[in-house]
Amino acid sequence: MRRTSRDIRTANRYGVLRQIIARSPVSRQDLAAATGLSLATVATLVGELLALGLLTEVGFEESAGGRPRGLVGVDAGGATLVGVDVAETRVHVELFDLALNVLDRADEELRPGESAPEEVADHIARAVRAVTGRTRDGGQEAAAVPGSPGPPGAPERSGRGDGRPVLGAGVSVPGQVDREGGVSVHAPRWDWHDVPLLRLLSERLPDHPLHLDNPLRACTVAELWSGAARGHGDAVVVSLGTGVGAGLALGGALHRGATDSAGAWGHTTLALDGRPCHCGNRGCVETYVGAPGIVRHLRDLAPGSPLFRPGDQSATLAALARAARDGDPVALAVIRETARFLGAGIADLVHLVNPEIIVVSGWVARLLGEELLTAVREVVARRAPARPLAGTEIVLSTIPTNPVALGAATFALERHLSDAGAAAAAERRRGGARPAATPRAPRP
Amino acid sequence: MRRTSRDIRTANRYGVLRQIIARSPVSRQDLAAATGLSLATVATLVGELLALGLLTEVGFEESAGGRPRGLVGVDAGGATLVGVDVAETRVHVELFDLALNVLDRADEELRPGESAPEEVADHIARAVRAVTGRTRDGGQEAAAVPGSPGPPGAPERSGRGDGRPVLGAGVSVPGQVDREGGVSVHAPRWDWHDVPLLRLLSERLPDHPLHLDNPLRACTVAELWSGAARGHGDAVVVSLGTGVGAGLALGGALHRGATDSAGAWGHTTLALDGRPCHCGNRGCVETYVGAPGIVRHLRDLAPGSPLFRPGDQSATLAALARAARDGDPVALAVIRETARFLGAGIADLVHLVNPEIIVVSGWVARLLGEELLTAVREVVARRAPARPLAGTEIVLSTIPTNPVALGAATFALERHLSDAGAAAAAERRRGGARPAATPRAPRP
């Protein structure tokens, strides 16, 4: 958990690439200003990223009274990345270019009862092969999802990644994950315990590196690289779904904690002795602001409401969201009650973490949108002192695509950068052929 | 809030000096192993610390089959540091050597009604002059506290800092502090708002740099440099007094947050709609585990208890602690009730932050000691999942002296190191005379 020189080099490499993705094309001088690093450090890092084939030189801009400045951009026509969102009832896969634009998508349904690790691994592998165009190993090409061409204006749209190298695939699975070991430690939905998912996947997808993590951390990294948290030192990403979490992005990097399980905010206590939670405790944040908790607010406030869609909490919340936008008093009361708890929980994050920005993400937040956020901001303003609150924005996620798949692909990009950095360092130690990156006496 | 190259150099300088203080005398090789930095980086940093006069070369140790390794240690006979703990009823000042051993102490009482900023500043200045031996500017020498010779075995014990240079003084004042501006933003006890305390102190103590901060952050930095958090990547320092807080030490450095107010854990919500808090909300952690909250548990459980010392909460808690150690059932019930809330709050920190260690500090923790900690660990074990909990130790602070004064002096040491680093960097940019630290092309 200590930051070593290599961690710092890796973090700087991430920071520079993140800004290049955001600003492409961009000069080294503008990157130095955006990252706070020296121009010489930026030049070295850009040289490494060019040597790794992640960037291209894309021309020059005039500088005021000096020689023209070279511009670099992400090589969006080069290699690709895969992001896999394994949810409870389906596997969703997206293929990305190196600027993290979506090139292609594929889905596989997980039917009820299909919960054996090998079955789930088969579905994941089939969907990944569908987007990478690799159909050997006996897999069928799954149909790409039509009508989902990615964000407008993205320059690269091959429709497939055929022939383009895949730098890696990130796989997000729900529950507790041992990232280093590639193990699903506990996935309650399928009653998985210590499933070696990465090994099962490597057998099926031997052609590129694979990385395992969980949805909360994927969402957080997606916001850090491509969303509202980019450029902020300290950010919290509150994820609202059936489960609830708060990913911490501190100093520009994901805070993982001692056992890689930081962010379990859904099981912090908001009302000791309150609503029972499936975790065995009472009054957890999740019981009041997760999807089932919000449905329960509706049941408590209006037991016979026509907003209920029995057995379908997503449809119930969608009906609630529509009714709230139409000014329905019951729906607005449910939003207010949810905001009373969510606002208290977010005020707690302001008190404890004092971040620059809190990004509210997840499908529940997407449905309830600004109606919920406006009510939450009012509660937070009543509860948190002026000084920390003045430094904290509370915003909805603006990522237009699936943030979990995006974050999973981002993990694959991060890992590629850090592995490449380690390889370059090893080459330097052997006295390798990259003089521009051969420090005689490394500086602190 | 972004980490720049200079932040990283400063953090590395802190990390190396912290390990030298812990292990003195120590070889550069052992420092590289302890910090995770490269030997070359450690050698550069040790060179800088030697040039700053903070270290001395103290001989050699034999290495296995190589040339003897040079050992360095802190120059404990050199410069000194001052730490000031301004509490509600007294100013406590300690003088430290560079190994952070206490050399001398002085106290000034703040009488009821003595709350004008100028009066408090006069008391602080008088106590500081008492330990630094500087009596000019008309100040009287205050009597050093007898019978408090500092921890046993400390090599330097001049009894005074006379003649030794003072690198700086750190001053901790309660409440909200604007560290950069040197302003006490709000100190409720004295009804201070935006008091420019650092300016008032600089007028009275013009001879050395002064730094303002608050007790929670001072305690946290004391644990990080000299206490149980040293050597841990992620730590939380829970401070229990009349007020309550949780300082976050993440990645080996204090996490300050966007407006320098992170750690206000005492005002996070443990029981929405619970006990009223002076902050205007209800159910804050502080209302259940701060000193007045514990006294209230006693009143709720045993209204006529002989443990009460009317009007004196410290004496009541001391009586409670003695009774608990003697097995008194009422005292034990109060400890259990306190632990029920404190354990839930600490389990929340395990869930959200997932630190390697939680250090419980402050005068309430010192009084109730292992009786409280044992009960807390049981509650946390029931509430937090096995995986994060397995990675987290929960311990009492082991700092034997005043942690606030120690932390305040540590801030002065940190600031000296970072100012010296900035000056060295400026000298390098001017092409100065320190070739060993002149990077032509800084590395990432």
TrEMBL record, chains A, B:
It comes from the Bacteria. SUPFAM superfamilies: Actin-like ATPase domain (SSF53067), Winged helix' DNA-binding domain (SSF46785). Residues 433-444 have a biased composition (Low complexity). Residues 133-179, 422-444 are annotated as: Disordered. It holds the Pfam family ROK. Belongs to the ROK (NagC/XylR) family. This is ROK family transcriptional regulator. It comes from Streptomyces zingiberis.
